[in-house]
Write a structure and sequence with these properties.
The protein is 7% helix and 39% strand. The chain is mainly β. The protein is elongated.
Length: 161
């Protein structure tokens, strides 16, 4: 069995959006334990080559009902019904640029083409480039640089016109 990190990311994202506190998956080649406590998910991966356990903690947004504050910037007063969302395909950290000292991939007002990288989501120490699926103009960036994001969260709005 080969390790598919995209499937592991999707599993962790699915668990993070529930009240499940722990899941353990075991096979000959892998032992994956996902634990969730309030706003932290701890992951332990037992690697088969040297049977070494790797543990990593990742802060996630708090889903509790008593948490009324949102870390997402306020939406603009009016969104056009033709605008389309670019959403996060995973839980992670949103970055607008490839490195802190480099310019952002896109700014509001920029035109993008399908396949053009618009941001990065860091998940499990991996940088995942997020590409535009359509051509259009970036009309809003809904997340601040360095902010944690959830699976399906709106990152940007694009006007395909």
């Amino acid at each position: 069995m080969s390790i598919d990190f995209n499937e592991i990311r999707q599993l962790i994202a699915a668990i993070a959006s529930t009240d499940i506190t722990e899941v353990t998956l075991k096979s000959e080649n892998l032992e994956l334990i996902v634990r969730q406590e309030k706003t932290v998910v701890a992951r332990e991966i037992l690697l088969p080559s040297d049977r070494e356990t790797v543990t990593e903690a990742v802060s996630l947004p708090n889903h509790s009902a008593d948490n009324k504050q949102s870390s997402e910037p306020a939406p603009p007063a009016k969104r056009d019904k033709n605008w389309l969302e670019i959403t996060s395909p995973m839980v992670g950290t949103f970055y607008r640029a490839p490195a802190p000292d480099e310019p952002p991939f896109v700014d509001v007002g920029d035109r993008v083409a399908p396949g053009q990288t618009v941001c990065i989501i860091e998940a499990m120490k991996l940088m995942n480039e997020i590409d535009a699926e359509i051509s259009g103009e970036i009309v809003e960036i809904a997340v601040e640089n360095g902010q944690p994001v959830e699976y399906g969260q709106t990152l940007m709005w694009i006007n395909p016109g």
